[in-house]
User: What shape does this take?
Amino acid sequence: MTASTGKTAFKHEALYTALRTEIGATLRPHDPLPSERELVARFGVSRATVRQAVGRLEEEGLVYRSQGAGTFVADPSTISKSLALTSFSEDMRSRRLTPDSRLLDLTLVPAGVTVARDLSLSPGAEVAHVRRLRLADGLPMCVEEVWLPTERIGGLDAGTVAGSLYDALAGRGVQPHHADQVISATVVDADQAALLGVAPYSPALRVDRITYTEAGVAVERAESMYRADRYDFRITVTRRTP
Amino acid sequence: MTASTGKTAFKHEALYTALRTEIGATLRPHDPLPSERELVARFGVSRATVRQAVGRLEEEGLVYRSQGAGTFVADPSTISKSLALTSFSEDMRSRRLTPDSRLLDLTLVPAGVTVARDLSLSPGAEVAHVRRLRLADGLPMCVEEVWLPTERIGGLDAGTVAGSLYDALAGRGVQPHHADQVISATVVDADQAALLGVAPYSPALRVDRITYTEAGVAVERAESMYRADRYDFRITVTRRTP
DNA sequence: TAGTGGTCTAGACCACCCT
DNA sequence: GGGTGGTCTAGACCACTAT
Assistant: This one.
């Protein structure tokens, strides 16, 4: 069933993927996972490898562990957004929603002042402009506008931007590494309201993001407007008291 | 030097604390940490234990690892401030604004259903309810509502809640350690609009927070409504290689 | 080539939960 | 008491980086 894409070289990744699939398919919230020792036997790996895979599931909020009792599937309503850089598609899947996309615009344009500055481009350099309506389980979730410097990532076509843009970038050898995000509140305009299926001036969570490679080269600038009634940001913060 | 507080039973915690202290004291940004194998020898533990301790430092953004090269102290300027649990006063000062507070309400009330659940209290247990208008450089920034379980933190008076609530808690021996935050977008009602000096139905960034001590005891539940035109959340997120 | 972090094994003991 | 997750050991090989 889990037809490997050929990229999963590590055992803990293969196990992680297998467990993730099973959680999404057959297990219900609060169902117990097989015990770690049973996974050792079933997958033919060591317990350390099992714990690495389950640990990642726990980090991502898909399961919770209870010492002495077992590991259980988390309640989706309590899934927290982690601080990992994720594409919309990945984010939705981690919330156990099916992502989809409707392309609204895909054009090559000269970079404006703001885009050029954020991407460290010469003003007027060519950028690909992508505007998409993003859906979760078929319902509008956000309107997203993205600018990509073509000189750094190559050209784009409609097929490429149908799914995860991060996958498309990775396919061109461009690996997103980190991003600066600004989260703010706003209200939608008439156009956005129509796309999202809400009344004009409804509240929206706005996320502005600039994505960089490991070398610090900006490869994406994105503005996303999320429906406030369907999306929030959950983070756990710890106190620094040195 | 590392005068144990008596609670650190695990080797990886002791090592984590030792490394954390060294990072804060003698090491500079981008300085290399001792290699994992050297830490094995120096602390007399296995490499798995070393990796657990260093892994926690990496999770918290204090160090970064580079395969084949080493582990290095992270640059503090790239540590996102929003990942730290801060009080309003601390947050404002870090933005170089002067915080102030206007007390709107301070009463002892029985905990409602939601508050009791979030703070793990018996329904009807006594909580202190604090409502404050928070100012930055003299201008309204947010309306904040806080519930505190009096049985865990003692009584409160107007003088105590004039400034930083976290300072007040620390003065009673209650140390906030971490918090779960939910960030969402909404619009203000007429009352909040009047206090914040904006039009009704203006957008606002809403932050719901439950604060815990190190032992996991909930000591504060807070709801804050920030003026959207004066406040945003900035975080740097990094990619987990999928 | 030598050293580093990343992965992995096959054990072990402990603290805790459930019945 | 039996099973679970949490911690820990003492090795090993691999992929990568620096020189």
Summary: The mean pLDDT of chain A is 85. Residues 11-25 of chain A form the longest helix (15 residues). The two ends of chain A are 49 Å apart (CA to CA). The first strand of chain A starts at residue 63 and ends at 66.
